[in-house]
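Data availability (excerpt). The following record was deposited with the supplementary files.
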Amino acid sequence: MVNDSHLHFFHLNILIQIYNFNASLKRASMTLTVNRVVEAKGLTEGPHWDHRTQKLFFVDIWGNKICRFDPATSKVTCAYIANGPVGVAIPIDDGANHFVAGSGVDVVLVTWDGETNSTNPPIRKLKSVNKFNEGTRFNDGKADSFGRFWAGTMSEIKGDFMPNGGEFYCMDKNLTLTTQITPVSISNGLAWNLDDDTFYYIDSPTKQIVSYDFDPQKGSIANRKVVFDLTKNNLPGVPDGMTIDSKDNLWIALFGGSQVIQVNPKTGKLLQSIPIPAKRVTSVTFGGPMLDILYVTTAGNGFANPAEKTPEDDMQGGSIFEIKGTGARGVLSNSFKMSDD
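Predicted structure:
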């Protein structure tokens, strides 16, 4: 049986599609702009637009921080998570000021109002995952339409990535954790289509975007298929974070590629490429009242060696950019749903 939360997001996403019906007509008269909205930090990742508060949340991985950007005021506030590097943080459904986060090898519950900086917000450990070595940590993650938490790990020691050093997991509202894909090297971008029957996923070193059949009732995936290959399309860098728009096209950050690309996963066609003034583009998400602003996170310093400096030819690395005029709109982001028990 489909729950109320699932129907809620379905109906809201239908409304977004209705608003989007004339986007292709407007696009010809729109000017594409790329502007920096958050000054350089470290390794910014995991952008999540919270439509309830109209705020952008993101993480600074090696800064151990969950951050919030308010577009109305340009104010950025952060909460330091002493537990370890933070790869992903997602608001909890019906739980104001609460987040589920992947920190180190732990899934933690964080309490933070986002209004002011915090150096010691309350956290509660929910689950721990396999630790392959000292460099194992959570990376990217999202919630599905039923509110399950999907996130994966990777292993990095002093900047060296360990092949097959991670796994990809799903945690439901009862905090039952299941391994979905193993092994992976750098678990990264993920997205679901509008029909909610296809899941897209990136393991960055493969340079591929793959799809799986998705069962939203069971929260299961099956039948892996490659839908886009960077090497075959002569694109630089590796695929990192990813989002999907209201026409089921994927938007993918190219780490080391200085760009964001739009791809039709059904045809495998590259639709467009947007240059970003930073080399290491980490992730993307749509935000704004009409979900027509593409927010882009990037990496400066902040790898496994925190002392590493941003290269002189990439001084905007670590900044967050907004792109307007793409002609596309996103879909509502899901929140994590915890058990009512």
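Summary of structural features: The chain has two helices and 25 strands.
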